[in-house]
Design goal:
This protein is an alpha/beta fold. The chain has helices spanning 6-23, 38-50, 62-65, 87-95, 154-159, 167-181, 191-210, 245-249, 256-278, 292-298, 300-313, 324-329, 351-361, 363-371, 426-431, 454-462, and strands at 25-32, 69-75, 109-117, 130-140, 285-290, 335-340, 376-380, 387-394, 397-405, 411-414. The chain binds guanosine-5'-diphosphate. Guanosine-5'-diphosphate binds next to helix 2. InterPro entries: YcjX-like.
């Protein structure tokens, strides 16, 4: 075969170099509904990468196992308008005596790391060490629950009656509903009345959240951040729309209905869309954290609600051609992980069931993602392991158990119960076969935080960039 001319070879090498240059930057986002474990995950992720060369146990991450991952240092983040992820305060809380869980983040935050690694094979132009700039983002999954709102106008949103799903929710919103039913959509809007009703509606959402419900809209009402108290959050669905949409649309701008329509539109355009346009669209990879075990602990109504919420949340990742998001923003996430968190709440023999249950819970969204050819992996992990696995003897049998310290400070040895591998049926709930306490983090040994399968998650999310 004739040798290609030198300029061709050089051209190709230069192309490769540029390609690699592009590969050296990755924007990785972490999300999940509040309490799913985002803050703990990001803290552990940064901690493991910073200790990768030495103390961290990352056997499932080949670059670390082979000693090629040399560590990570923090760099100044490029987006000056986004708060910095509070890594130092989180580590400080974990290092206290007794250790505390880090305070959860409540909006979007960011942290930039530079990873240093030795490539697996050395090529012609390749330097002995390479680097990967990793931009990490953390944002509330509640914000993704707002995507379906973009598919509604105010009138059709009111028809979904989001306050009426299930007996418990009806109870929570009963007082608000009585007051809202008294409002005449055609009457002149009274600012103070609207603000009061909007606050009562938001209070209902917060109460539902506290009680373990997940399917709650609009998402910013729960985590308003800098929008707290702004009129853009002062709307709610009107319960008694007896006129046709055309009749309602003809009402004057000063009417209750027209005022709420304007606020709903503003919320769509100035709150929901900018998040997708300015942040979501730019993420390369994403991990969605799900507290499956917490929902199992909370009972059937909350479990069912989590399933509904995840169905809505996952719409942000389904890239079918008719998908709303695709039409609006063309996101570019090319790899997704879905992780059941807090796996240290169950004994290791149950971990496969946790993943099976997560798969069952997300069956439809996962099917769509696979069909759209988005690489996705489901796994279970503990970002910061708070228990130790033990065995106890019962007669001749050796049974798995967990040793840990409860949040109240009591040392316990427990068997939390079996996790069902499929969606739990009535028989499961009647047996009430699952119960675990919250655990306090273990006192910090020097170096890396203890974890379960953080290395598997890291490998899936960035491992291919470290070869
Ligand atoms: P966020 O609201 O999604 O940021 O959730 P956090 O990261 O604040 O986690 C919520 C709570 O879940 C923490 O305060 C812990 O009590 C618990 N938690 C989170 N991660 C773990 C974990 O890996 N193991 C255990 N045992 N508990 C965890």
């Amino acid at each position: 075969m004739p040798t290609p001319p030198v300029h061709e070879t050089l051209g190709r090498e230069l192309g490769n170099l540029l390609e690699r240059g592009r590969d050296r930057q990755l924007r990785l986002a972490v999300t999940g509904l509040s309490q799913a474990g985002k803050t703990a995950f990001l803290t552990s992720l940064v901690n493991q990468l910073r200790h990768a060369g030495v103390e961290a146990r990352l056997d499932l991450l080949p670059a670390a196992r082979d000693g090629r991952l040399l560590g990570a240092k923090r760099l100044n983040q490029p987006d000056l308008g986004v708060p910095r992820f509070p890594y130092d305060p989180a580590m400080q809380a974990l290092g206290e005596s007794p250790p505390r869980w880090p305070a959860p983040t409540r909006g979007i935050s960011e942290l930039r790391l530079e990873l240093r690694y030795r490539p697996a094979r050395s090529g012609w132009f390749r330097a002995p060490t390479s680097h990967l700039t990793l931009d990490l983002f953390d944002y509330p999954g509640e914000w993704l629950l707002d995507l379906p709102l973009l598919g509604h106008d105010y009138y059709s949103w009111c028809q979904t009656r989001p306050y009426a799903q299930g007996a418990k929710r009806q109870e929570i919103f009963a007082e608000w509903l009585t007051a809202a039913e008294r409002l005449d959509p055609a009457a002149d809007a009274n600012e103070a009345v609207l603000a009061e009703l909007a606050e009562a509606y938001a209070k209902g959402l917060r109460r539902a959240k506290q009680l373990g419900f997940s399917h709650l809209q609009p998402g910013r009402f729960l985590l308003p951040g800098e929008l707290d108290g702004a009129p853009v959050l002062q709307f709610f669905p009107l319960p008694n729309l007896s006129q046709t949409q055309a009749e309602l649309d003809a009402l004057p701008d000063t009417s209750v209905y027209a005022t709420l329509v304007a606020r709903f539109r503003y919320y769509q355009k100035q709150v929901v869309q900018p998040f997708y346009r300015e942040h979501f669209r730019r993420f390369d990879r994403q991990i969605v954290l799900v507290d499956v075990l917490g929902a199992l602990n909370a009972g059937p109504e909350r479990f069912e609600d989590l399933s509904l919420a995840l169905g809505e949340l996952m719409q942000s990742f389904s890239y079918g051609s008719r998908n709303l998001l695709n039409r609006l923003f063309a996101p570019r996430i090319d790899r997704l992980a879905i992780a059941a968190t807090k796996a240290d709440h169950v004994t290791p023999d149950q971990h496969d069931n946790v993943v099976a249950l997560l798969n069952a819970l997300l069956k439809e969204p996962l099917k769509e993602l696979r069909f759209a050819n988005v690489p996705v992996k489901a796994l279970s992990l503990a970002s910061i392991r708070a228990t130790q696995s033990r065995e106890v003897s019962q007669g001749k049998e050796r049974l798995p158990a967990l040793r840990g310290t409860t949040l109240e400070g009591e040392d316990v040895l427990v068997y939390p119960g079996d996790v069902p591998a499929t969606l739990p049926d009535n028989a499961f709930w009647q047996r009430q076969g699952f119960d675990f306490p919250g655990f306090r983090p273990m006192p910090a040994a020097s170096g890396a935080l203890p974890h379960i399968r953080m290395d598997a998650a890291i490998d899936w999310l960035i491992g291919d960039k470290l070869t």
